[in-house]
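For the sake of clarity, the format in which proteins appear in this thesis is described at this point. The fold follows as a row of integers, each naming the local backbone shape at the matching residue. One such record is shown here in full, so that the layout can be seen directly:
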Amino acid sequence: TTVKCYGKTTVATLAELAAWQVEPVTDLEISSSLAFGGASLDIQTWCKVKTRKHADITGLHNVFIAASSIDIQGDIEADGRVELRAAGSIDLREKTTFLGLTGSLVMEGNDVDDHADIDFVTKYCLEAGDRAVVRKSSRNSTAGGSVWVSGAKVDIHGDFDGTGTVQMAAVEEFNLQEHA
């Protein structure tokens, strides 16, 4: 079954986001910062989800985003579990920061590209069907949490500081850069 997305909806307020969530059949672009006041964010769509640069999403507990692709350019503040799942690509852009102490981060997509800075408590999990990349600009830290990265091709340039267990697996190519 092929699902069609009908254009793009740009939201700048929580009310506009809630209205889009009623019928999420357009690509979603978050253009302004949104403060959730301790609530959780749950986005499920067949379309694309994007946050613009400087469109920070703060005050979250848990985050679940499932979409055709996910492009995060603004900062995210969540103290619980952050789960990003995409049929296509997940991009955490350079200068994106996960503010505060995120409980765990799980990313699953065909192509996952992490430029972000993330402080996590328990788990950093990146699973890619094709390509998993942790960029040189990425600074990920924990106090004993675990790291799991897997994909057909795994390319690690960024840092993981203070980790407990680290596991990485690649089916075709594994590239661990000197900086990592």
Q: What stands out?
A: The helical segments are 14-22. The first helix runs from residue 14 to 22.
